[in-house]
Design goal:
CATH architecture of the largest domain: 3-Layer(aba) Sandwich
Radius of gyration: 32 Å
Order of helices and strands: EEEEHHEEHEEEHEHHEEEHHHEHEEHEE
Distance between the termini: 75 Å
Largest sheet: 7 strands, mixed
Helix content: 25-40%
CATH topology of the largest domain: Rossmann fold
């Protein structure tokens, strides 16, 4: 029977003992930090943490017996996980049948002796082939696509995609085939280091979040965070893990892990990824991992506001050709009822609501509606006012606004200091 190891994130260097029946050597292993792991995680079920202890006439036979044992145990664990109930209810499959549905053996830890093999293994099953034995179609309920933005803290320094981190690589190693969470993992190349930064995780503006999510084909975002503390160089490493969800960073779970040596950092982070995935899975089941409804909007043009602006522009052009006597009459009419488009600095949603309420409460104002919303920028507000623009500017200043006068428009803001240049931008 031929076995093929498809463990693409570990290159195993097996050390066999030369003489001595009781000698068992620890296998050495290195990790490939490449971003392209070359496997389809969505096509496999994975069962990990299988402890085996087998013997044989030589080291090769002992390892082969151990792997067959891992396949049988992994099959029972997988059946129990998918169908519920005890593992003893799993149908008995022959070794040849299991070999046909197993796509790889994952070596987590191993010790090899001349006639004995002790290890902790994982088994990967082909989703399509094993589904007929599991009694399922191979399709599991999955969440909407979730963009993964991992953040690693070492001391007081946070890092996301600005540079490659062990935490980012741990998420790239994670095989999410059997997870109900549809993770969207960025490659970390191109514009990603400039877009998916630590600062982005704290920005509430939905417009920029929607742009980023659309760029990566996601519907929402999850932010797994790890705080690493090294006791001393080469010594124990402590990790505090926090799972956040959404632009507002709603906490899903928090836990801590520890390893005895910094050489086991990857093992610590891999276990952290596994537990965070379990926390997100539980949150999906109990309804906490729902897409943020504030992200579900589309950019567009307010056609009604555009038509009104064009009508006002045409009226201004016509007024330029009107004789002075008629302009005086029109001025009196405008004084009776005027409609003005003013600019409002709106750093957040509260600023929009507060500005509208204050403008509506200004004496002489008969109506105020935000016609163009720009959270974090400058919005446009349509104001019906009995009076001219200068009088409106004075009235708004009396209400506590910082007012800037421009060519045919006003810019208003709340708080101290001047906003931008002396002349506001056009509507």
């Amino acid at each position: 029977m031929h076995f093929v190891i498809r463990n693409l994130k570990k290159l195993l260097v097996l050390a066999l003992a030369g003489i001595g029946a009781t000698g068992i050597l620890l296998a050495q292993q290195t990790r490939d930090n490449s971003r392209d792991f070359g496997f389809d995680a969505g096509a496999s079920y994975e069962v990990t943490g299988i402890t085996v202890d087998a013997s044989g006439e030589d080291a090769e036979e002992a390892r082969r017996n151990a792997w067959e044992q891992a396949q049988r145990e992994g099959w029972r664990m997988l059946y129990a996980r998918v169908n519920g109930g005890p593992a003893s209810r799993a149908p008995n499959l022959s070794d040849s049948s299991l070999s046909a549905v197993v796509t790889g053996i994952i070596v987590e830890e191993e010790q090899i002796g001349p006639t004995r093999y002790v290890a902790r293994l994982g088994v990967m099953f082909d989703r399509a082939r094993v589904s007929r034995y599991l009694g399922v179609s191979g399709v599991i309920r999955r969440s909407p696509p979730m963009l993964v933005l991992p953040v690693q803290w070492v001391g007081s320094t946070p890092t996301s995609f600005e540079e490659r981190t062990p935490w980012e690589r741990a998420w790239l190693r994670f095989r999410s085939g059997e997870s109900p969470i549809d993770y969207v993992r960025a490659s970390g190349t191109g514009p990603t280091p400039l877009l998916l930064t630590v600062g982005q995780t704290g920005r509430p503006g939905r417009g920029w979040w929607r742009f980023l999510l659309d760029s990566y084909g996601a519907a929402d975002v999850v932010v797994p965070v790890v705080h690493l503390h090294y006791a001393y160089p080469g010594g124990p490493v402590y990790g505090r893990f926090v799972a956040y969800h959404g632009p507002d960073r709603r906490k899903i779970a928090q836990f801590s892990l520890r390893v005895r040596s910094s050489e086991s950092l990857d093992q610590l982070l891999d276990e952290g990824v596994r537990r965070i995935d379990a926390a997100y899975t539980q949150a999906l089941e109990d309804g906490r991992l729902r897409p943020d409804p504030s992200l579900n909007f589309e950019f567009g043009i307010d056609e009604e506001a555009l038509e009104e602006a064009l009508d006002e522009l045409q009226g201004s052009v016509a007024a330029a050709d009107t004789p002075p006597a008629e302009q005086a009459v029109n001025t009196e009419q405008a004084t009776a009822t005027g409609r003005y488009t003013i600019q409002v600095v709106t750093p957040d949603a509260n600023a929009v609501r507060n500005s509208e309420a204050l403008v509506r409460g200004t004496p002489g104002v008969r109506g105020a509606t935000t016609s163009s919303l720009a959270i974090g920028g400058v919005s446009l507000m349509e104001v019906n006012y009995i009076g001219d623009l200068d009088t409106l500017a004075s009235a708004l200043a009396a209400r506590g606004f910082q007012v800037q006068r421009g060519a045919g428009t006003l810019r208003i803001s709340r708080g101290g200091g001047s906003e931008g240049s002396d002349t506001p931008d056009g509507p």
